[in-house]
Amino acid sequence: MDDLKYGVRDKRGDWKPSGRLEIAPFWSWPPKLPKVLGWLPGYIWPWNAFHMATALLYWFYVVPNVETMKSISWGWALWLYAVNAAAIFVFYGIFELRYYVQRAQATRFKYNHKFPGDTPSDVFWFQSQNLDNFLRSFFITIPLWTVVEVIFLWCFANGYVPWVGWQDHPIYLAALVLIAPAIHEVHFFFIHRLIHWGPLYRWIHSVHHNSINPSPWSSLSMHPVEGFLYHAVAFWHLVIPSNPIVALFQLHVAGFGAVNGHLGFEKLELTEDTAVSSEAYAHYLHHKYFEVNYGGEGLIPLDKWFGTWHDGTKEGDALMDARFQKKRERVNARAASH
Ligand SMILES: [Zn+2]
Ligand SMILES: [Zn+2]
Question: What start and end residues bound the annotated signal peptide (predicted)?
């Protein structure tokens, strides 16, 4: 595909989309129904539909029976870890293999013309972003994802929290599934904003930000505190009356969905003229500029409300520069008064 129909490439070779990032259309006033209806299919397909499909596969083929889950044991915890690790290995691995190893679409639609594998850096274990990110994902973050999973399944199995049945409340549960990605955005925004606070950033979140040019394995490359808090989004289903399948969906939106922001390409070409939108740009800008786009793609536009939204345009750059300038002035004024 010709990526210059959709964006521009600078002298260095970095590509950026020509359009602007738009928050979800139901936030505009007066509401435009056709726009909302046009947006809805992309909300469901393909990413959220995929997360629901994996949640169902887990529920019917992976998760042990309720009797087993009444007591926590290494057996079923390790089994869940093995499946989570294998699933991420395959799912993220497909993107890594096709777009970063085989480089099937070269740098078409690629925000940063460089491939992390080509640039060794001392911030990473073994000087390798790929190896560092891979090891952190599989030996730190995915075990913590599994801890969250074991805890909520154990709570449901023992009846410590309400277990809403699909037969009894199908509409309520369907609505909960629909808003789960919004719960994810709000949860992620606030924990993420918190760990950007200086001392917590240096202690926790700097690990994730070592990858300025993220690739699929960067998605779950986190400090253990972040790895746990990030997946703890599923615990909201112990607070709101819910169902374990919805909680699994919530968990998968976090675990599997983390890859979206770190794909590095705007579109993933499937054939000569079809492509899937990656929805990676907002979070790519976060990795590039740090203090913008703490949340997601504007489903719940918290960044807009808190003044940290970068829509990828020149105006977005100007707003960000003005904000950074003000921050510098504040810091200098404080330093001068001491
Ligand atoms: Zn990230
Ligand atoms: Zn961050």
Answer: none
User: Per residue in 26-46, pLDDT tens?
Assistant: 999 898 999 999 999 999 999
pLDDT at residue 171 in the model: 98
Nearest to 194 by CA among 223, 236, 234: 223
Amino acid letter for position 153:
L
Whole-angstrom distance, CA of residue 316 vs CA of residue 131: 34
Residue type, 11: K
Amino acid in the structure at residue 301: P
Q: What are phi and psi of 263, to 5 degrees?
A: -75, -30
How many alpha carbons fall within 13 Å on the CB side of residue 289? Answer: 22
Residue type, 280: A
76 CA to middle of ligand 2, Å?
33
* Nearest ligand to the C-alpha atom of residue 218: 1
Helix (H) or strand (E) holding 15: strand 15-17
| The pLDDT of residue 73 is above 80 | yes
In angstroms, what is the span from residue 34 Cα to ligand 2's centroid? 34
Report the C-alpha dihedral over residues 96, 102, 105, 109, rounded to 10 degrees.
40
Are 136 and 224 within 8 A, CB to CB? no
Backbone angles phi, psi at 275, to 5 degrees: -150, 155
| β-bridge partners, 9 | 15
Residue identified by tokens 């809403």 is 164
Considering every ligand atom shown, identify the ligand nearest to the alpha carbon of residue 211 and give its number: 1
Between CA 265 and CA 112 the distance in angstroms is 8
Structure tokens at 191: 């924990």
Pair 146, 226: CB distance under 8 Å: no
Check: CB of residue 7 under 8 Å from CB of residue 16. Answer: yes
Phi-psi label, residue 73: left if phi above 0, alpha if psi -120 to 50, beta otherwise: beta
- Compute the distance from residue 325 Cα to the ligand 1 centre, in Å: 24
| CA quadruple 64, 70, 74, 75: dihedral sign | negative
The answer to pTM > 0.85 is yes
